[in-house]
Design brief:
The complex is a heterodimer. Chain A is of the alpha/beta class. Chain A folds into two domains: 252 residues, Rossmann fold; 67 residues, no CATH class. Helix content of chain A is 28%, strand content 19%. By secondary structure, chain B is an alpha/beta fold. Chain B contains 20 helices and 24 strands. The chains are: A alpha/beta, B alpha/beta. The interface between A and B is large, with 61 and 72 residues.
């Protein structure tokens, strides 16, 4: 963005971001939509494609870099945030993106994820959450619902899942958002906002695995049920959802309550107005817990977007400050320091 | 030995002395030892040091397992070890005496802090009676000194608390040692001033304690003799005292400047490697970026990310951390990125002996990865050699686009020696050429070294993808083709094997052929050198060779080994190099092993040489 506008520069299109590799996900996989929305959004994020790097771990999601005509690094299981962190520290000029899945990021890579969040390193992480292990053919994942019957849990899983949004908020991520593979426009909007965020940006994408966990999000994607089960978060706007926007959510203390806007008892002015810049993560956390509360719709959109110094900036600033104070180091003074003596 | 009298005290000239400072882990013995070594270096002696401390930071006072020691060997001759047996033991409490007495030379000198020899401490050390009084130390020269109370007396005007005053006693002991061995106080006085700049009252107290110790030696009648060790006849040049870990840090900063690549360290704190992270984090004005990662795995994978971005990337660790980095090393092999993995070995397996030295990670370094994953393995031999091997590791990594493992160990890492500084212009440049041309670019094309191009993100037109899946030759696309896989496995192996043509030959010290070759690697260098030197002075037919490149080995290695009737390999493990040498060269070496968490003594290796060449058949 910092570059002067070059008259000869031609605006890129989605096609420019497609690599020459055949896409090898199963037909009908939600990943196709994610790839398409990324390719459609990227011409608008204002970064030259040679300055973009996609880093991934292991899993279906992690094949993503091969399909993007940018720089790419297909890493090892769970380590994408760490590889990306090293790259971003070394090269703050690059726009570094991570494609990852629920097993990759929240199981084997959980530690790297929370530390990337807390450091506020300027990475963009897209979590393809299908609540199942796809590449290893159908074991339950850390986001599978309790009681999930899979190959590795034939009698149902007995552990509780992670709520990725709650986890990211708890780990102090500065940008936390959610979108759905079947909402292309919404996804493009969220990707662009993540790209514009200075700092760690976490985007959970509900993604359907039509082979091993088909219909995981059908309540949120099917025409008949979607309106009553999804609330779209928009900064500065009240939480309204339902057919004809007939329902709203108000906050009763810490407790979100669904109200009928047509019964005369509540008006739109009584509703919770979303503020994604709120310094406190408390309300964003309450929003993140909607999915755990029967009767409440699933929020999509930006839960939180606050600005604070990034880790990579902090490192640069410190290097500059110390260099100004001590002067740029040279080899002779490096070696010939400490107590030296001469032997004649 | 010459004797002369000045000011009523006799001065005796000695060629070499070994002093061991020992006390509770909270007594400041490491500091005392370090200061004594640094001053000793400045007066021009050759020296070697051995810190030996428990893993507990502050073990309960007075216990045997809480004893911390620091040994300094200094001489007017060229020396290579911290000394086998101390001539002088400074024991700050009964436990320190008990633990260290067995190592002391017969008729050696004991300076004991009598104040701490009370019934409680004696009991904790397992003494039934006070050894300072019961005659059990009659074979030694015992100098009882009430160090604690003399320190308190000297500081009776001080505003510090009693506890703080007591803590100054190590400076009293240091001052006394300076007097005894005729060393100047100035370097330590300056150090105190700088170190405690923000606590002038502490600086003053330590200064007073140091001087009090010195003057005590001068005025007391207990000591009748002082010792003088003339400066060593070292080669001309400018010297500094250096530890292995410090030398590694300096080595990689130097490599960064000589290659014009920014230095990136990804690391997780672990004993005894953390000091490299500490040192490097000081050098921000050299553009060094240090990343203290959330774990060992993030340490190496962040370094891999930085290497991809064009940094000179390194990661530092010790055995258990090395185990965790294994998968990352495989990724670096597959993505063919330059990276140096530094393992400061310690006693294993598992958590093992964190503060003790061992050489038992050689198999892990050469073989410890899934798949055919060859990585060059280099090993340091002395503290100052760490500098040069770091340059070598960086050179090979960059030139061959490969991860390189650099092995050091706790003994070298914490040990110090005088280092004759190289002239900066004599250190060769390490030119790096990044790929920039779009025409003909392929991510897995090969140059004359079989290295692939280093194409940095940000370069227009060279957008490409790398990763851990098998790569197709040239294009770097994912490939499951059987022929391609075999081709790539062989190519990666050949690329590493070719490094053999780019490293110095294995050098033999002594006769180029004969009865016995002592073959070593790593930190055994000093003890082997002294043992072989001693044996050769006695005309035993023994030579020495030290491997700094363990994989691949120098191409003349086989020739060298075949020229000797017997090969002795001393190692601090169960015979790992011996096994590798047997397998590679079909020779039958004699293995001398030691697994005590301590380095070899010269006498142990010398004894084995005598045993092998015994009966006069080696003469």
């Amino acid at each position: 963005m910092a570059d002067n506008i070059d008259a000869k520069e031609i605006k890129l299109t989605a096609k420019d971001f497609a690599s020459d590799q055949d896409v090898r996900w199963c037909p009908g996989c939600g990943n196709y939509s994610i790839l398409a929305q990324v390719q459609r959004s990227f011409p608008d994020i204002g970064v030259k494609k040679e300055n973009i790097v996609w880093v991934s771990g292991i899993g279906c999601s992690s094949r993503f870099p091969y399909y993007m005509n940018t720089y790419g690094f297909h890493g090892i299981h769970g380590r994408a945030p760490a590889i990306a962190t090293g790259l971003k520290i070394a090269r703050p000029d690059l726009s570094v993106w991570v494609a990852t899945g629920d097993g990759d990021l929240l199981s084997i890579g959980g530690n790297h994820f929370i530390h990337a969040c807390r450091k506020n390193i300027d990475l963009k992480v897209l979590l393809f959450n299908n609540r199942i292990y796809g590449l290893t053919k159908g074991q339950y994942s850390p986001t599978s619902e309790k009681g999930k019957i899979t190959k590795s849990t034939p009698y149902g899983s007995v552990d509780y899942p992670f709520n990725p949004i709650s986890l990211a908020l708890g780990a102090e991520a500065t940008f936390v958002a959610r979108t759905i593979d079947r909402e292309p426009k919404h996804m493009q909007e969220i990707i662009k906002r993540a790209a514009a965020h200075k700092g760690f940006a976490f985007v959970e994408v509900f993604q359907n695995c039509n082979i091993f966990n088909d219909g995981a999000y059908s309540l949120l994607t099917e025409k008949e049920t979607k309106a009553d089960n999804v609330v779209v978060l928009e900064h500065g706007k009240p939480l309204v959802f339902g057919k004809d926007n007939s329902k709203g959510i108000k906050l009763d203390g810490f407790k979100p309550v669904v109200v009928d806007l047509n019964d005369g008892r509540n008006s739109i002015n009584d509703l919770w107005v979303h503020d994604d810049h709120d310094e406190s993560p408390a309300r964003a956390f309450i929003l993140s817990q909607f999915t755990e509360t029967p009767g409440l719709p699933t929020p999509i959109g930006v839960f939180r977007a606050i600005v604070k110094e990034t880790y990579d900036e902090g490192i640069q600033t410190q290097i500059q400050r110390i260099t100004e104070k001590k002067g740029k180091g040279d080899l002779k003074s490096l070696l010939y320091s400490g107590g030296t003596w001469e032997v004649n | 030995m010459e004797k002369e009298k000045t000011l009523g005290k006799e001065i005796q000239n000695l060629n070499e002395v070994t002093v061991r400072f020992a006390g509770d882990s909270g007594d400041g013995m490491q500091l005392t030892g370090t200061q004594f070594s640094d001053t000793t270096a400045l007066v021009g002696n050759d020296l070697g040091t051995l810190p030996d401390y428990p893993a507990e930071i502050r073990a309960p006072a007075g216990t045997l397992y809480g004893v911390s020691g620091f040994q300094v060997h200094f001489s007017s001759n060229d020396i290579h070890t911290p000394g086998d047996t101390p001539d002088v033991l400074v024991a700050m409490n009964p436990a320190a005496l008990k633990v260290n007495l067995k190592d002391l030379k017969q008729n050696g000198m004991i300076i004991a802090n009598t104040d701490s020899f009370d019934s409680k401490n004696l009991k904790m050390a397992g003494y039934n009676s006070n050894p300072l009084e019961d005659g059990s130390l009659s074979n030694y020269k015992l100098y009882p000194v009430p160090i604690t109370s003399l320190t308190s007396n000297a500081l009776k005007e001080s505003t510090l608390t009693t506890k703080e005053i007591t803590r100054c006693k190590n400076f009293f002991a240091l001052g006394l040692s300076y007097w005894l061995f005729n060393r100047p106080l100035e370097p330590t006085l300056k150090w105190i001033k700088d170190k405690f700049a923000k606590r002038p009252e502490i600086a003053e107290a330590n200064t007073i304690a140091l001087k009090a110790g010195y003057y005590f030696g001068d005025s007391t009648e207990i000591f009748t003799t002082r010792y003088q060790i003339e400066p060593a006849h070292l080669p001309k040049g400018i010297y500094r005292n250096i530890s292995g870990n410090e030398a590694i840090a300096l080595g990689f900063i130097t490599a960064s400047l000589k290659s014009n690549l920014p230095l990136f360290l990804g690391s997780y704190p672990i004993t005894p490697a953390s000091d490299i992270l500490h040192y490097l984090s000081l050098f921000k004005n050299y553009g060094v970026k240090t990343f203290q990662a959330e774990d060992e795995i993030a340490g190496i994978t962040a370094a891999i990310g930085a290497a991809y971005g064009g940094s000179l990337a390194i990661t530092t660790t010790s055995g258990p951390g090395m185990a965790l980095k294994t998968e990352g090393m495989g990724l670096a092999v597959m993505t063919e990125l330059p990276l140096v993995i530094i393992n400061i070995q310690r006693g294993g397996p598992s958590t093992g002996l964190p503060t003790k030295t061992e050489q038992a990670d050689l198999f892990q370094a050469i073989f410890g990865r899934n798949g055919e994953a060859p990585i060059p393995v280099l090993a340091t031999s002395t503290p100052s050699n760490c500098f040069y091997m770091s340059l070598e590791a960086a050179r090979i990594a960059i030139k061959y686009m490969t991860p390189v493992i650099l092995l050091s160990d706790g003994y070298i890492a914490n040990g110090t020696e005088p280092w004759r500084l190289p002239k900066v212009e004599e250190i060769p440049d390490m030119p790096v050429k990044f790929a920039t041309e779009k025409d003909g670019f392929a991510p897995y094309a090969r140059n004359e070294n079989l290295a692939r191009p280093w194409a940095l993100p940000g370069t227009p037109g060279l957008e490409h993808r790398i990763g851990g899946l098998e790569k197709a030759h040239i294009t770097g696309n994912v490939s499951y083709d059987p022929e391609n896989h075999e081709f790539m496995v062989r190519l990666r192996a050949q690329r590493i094997q070719n490094i053999q043509n780019d490293i110095p030959d294995l050098e033999v010290v002594g006769d180029p052929e004969g009865e016995l070759l002592v073959l070593g690697w790593g930190g055994t260098y000093g003890a082997i050198t002294e043992a072989v030197t001693k044996a050769r002075k006695e005309r035993l037919k023994v030579s020495q060779a030290h491997l700094k490149y363990l994989f691949p080995m120098p191409k003349n290695t086989k020739d060298v080994l075949k020229r000797f009737k017997k090969i002795l390999i001393p190692e601090l493990n169960l015979g790992q190099l011996a096994t590798v040498v047997k397998a590679q060269f079909l020779v039958e070496p004699v293995s001398l092993t030691k697994i005590k968490g301590l380095p070899f003594k010269t006498s142990e290796i010398y004894g084995k040489i005598k045993e092998i060449l015994g009966g006069g058949n080696g003469r």
